[in-house]
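Appendix B: complex inputs.
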Amino acid sequence: MSVAPAAPSPHAKSPRRGKLDLRLLVPALFCTLYVLAAVFGPFLTHYDPVATNTSQRLRPPLTELRDGSLALFGTDQVGRDLFGQVIAGAQISLTVGILTLLLAGTVGTALGVLAGYRGGWLDTVVMRLADIQLAFPSILLAVLIAAVLGPSLVNVILVLALTRWVVFARVARAQTLAVRVRDFVNASRTLGASHLHIVRHCILPAVVAPILVVATVQFGLVIVAEASLSFLGLGMPPGTPSWGISIANGRNYLVTAWWISTMPGLVLSALVIAVGILGDRLRDRFDPNLTTR
Amino acid sequence: MTTMRLRPQGIGLILGLAITVGTSFGPVLQARAQGAAETLRVANPVAIVSLDPFGAKAADQPTLTVAQEVLEPLVMRQDGSIVPWLAESWENPDKLTWTFHLKSGVRFADGSPLTSADAKASLDRLIAEKGPLAGLWAAVDTIEAPDEKTLKIRTTQPVGTMLSNLTMLGIAPAAKIRDTAFFNAPYGTGPFKVAAFTAGQQVRLVRNDSYWGEKPKLAQIEYRYIPEVSGRITALENNEIDFTWGLPPDQVDQVRGSQGLKVESFPTYSNYYFWFNSSRKPFTDARVRQAMWHAVDFAQIQKDLFPGTATVAKGPIPQAVFGSSVQKPYAYDVAKAKQLLADAGYANGFETTMMWSSQCCTAVREFAETLVSYWAKIGVKVVPQELERATWLDRLLKLDWDSTLTDGNTLTGDADFTLARLYLSTAKRMGYANPKLDELLLAARAELDQGKRAELYAEAGRIIWDEAVGIFPLDMMVHAAYRTNVTGFKPTPNAMPRFDSVSKK
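Resulting structure:
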């Protein structure tokens, strides 16, 4: 956790090819670390979210527990190891992040390309719907829907996907509008290519890069949104080791046992910052308007 | 006095005004500041969702905490014994009749005189609403008001709990009793009347200047609901509130160390309890319920989670309550628990749910998670359901749950209030039905000899305990924390602080 990612500067020079790009590598390494921790961590920490041990509650970080193990991040209000809890939380956060983006990305891109390619009333309907939805703060919308659906993993993913598809749809539509009037698309059309062929071979390849960049930026936001919903008791059900729930659990102990909220909070911030810088850098690289600088 | 009162916009606005226009309105502001010194700012630990103590919230502590300052009963329990209040005397012409003589010269806050018709209307409505307190009055046959100052209650059988039941009946004006709008700002004969109420957020009481008894020193009481414990403590330390109670054990020490704050801890009529829905499988089998009890080490939990704030319970009702008894403790014995489960046909455990209200009780989530952990060790998977209080209450009353964790308060200080209100099979509160228990509880209620009543309650308590109708882990203490300029606070074991004797320096 001690490696601080380099701060992004908006007007950094484009790196020359072949040279190490630290602003890309460091956050990418960071994210890989999180993925590795989420995938393999649970095998190492053997964290059981149900098992409590009240006789060892509220132990500060780096305390040696009675069974000889080291509580790296301390223990929480019922004596569960916070390090294991945070690792298990990483699994939940990454699962929610990835699945939400897959769902929102697929639906959003499909609708966006359709709207951009078809135009006409379909374009109007889809994009006005998107505009209406954008008028609401997305977290407010998420809270509203989550309160109706109730807390569960699937519901969180559905709710967040519902609030995120718009971003993908708008980018996909804009890119489609720009590409579909290009000469090579017109050429294909003149040669008798079907709509499906044009979308698959001409439009989609042009859409993928910006969508991936948007996805990276959105990833951090989705993870924060999941934590926020869980913090409010509307995300993951109580008893699951979501970061948001861990932070909420520590609220009443901020003065006496700061680590309960602080540790998951730090881990969450580090991931969101790393993903943010990564997304920024990817945009710098792949955005055609910036590479020409 | 009216000119000194704070407007509903609150102190914040007035402080803002003080800063901006302080010089030109000096004298006015001085007067207002004096008003602030007479305002007690209270943060209640549980949201007040209704001010109607006759309806569905008749046994709801937050509602009763405010209602007791506004509506007064005929008799009051003080230091364990019953004293006359709005009724100055009473007699029993026979075992089935109670005649109460009301005090004269008592007026409601609107100036109309208190009559026996008001008392009759109040009791009538409480019974008609069929709320949680209606069960106390099941034996009432007729209620008559032969003249303005006499109330006659006839019962179908002798009622040994009449007086302690009456301590729970605040008298509201008969003309308003069925007016739902009245209960947004109710008034009665009490020392305070409600000036403003926003459900779930705040209540503002102002002094009833025509109060018949000793006038309260406070001009106003403002109850604010601050859901976060840390928020409440911060507000107390920053002089935003003067008084709060119901602090969790982990936070009490923090407040004890603060300058300018005082903490008072006192034993109460309340306990933590866990109910099984005995009408749902697998809790229909007493062995399953007993197994769940044997599986948890409550002594350890008390030591770790509730040091100095609770004691391990000795019976289904707290020891301070009339009719309590000491039962044989359930030992922490995992092997025995597993054996009992196997005997009942659940050798591999089962899955169930446990619900609780998020605003329920001190350290409830920690307690619940610990219980879930213990039960996992005997193969019982308990899915926790933390619900918003209104939802929880709704499901509780509809019996739509497997098990629930909550706290209970024997408000009247009489075993009948808890045992006969909740555990009679006709109450349908947790699905347990036992004719033997019903018989005992009804016999105790009908007995006018208090010594015999105590014996019957001990016997009833033994059945509830041995049959594990619920798990009764802890008897609670309550911690009230207040700023040192608050004086005259007298703790009451019903854990509903009263402020009529309180003053602020």
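Residues 1-33 of chain B have pLDDT under 50 and may be disordered.
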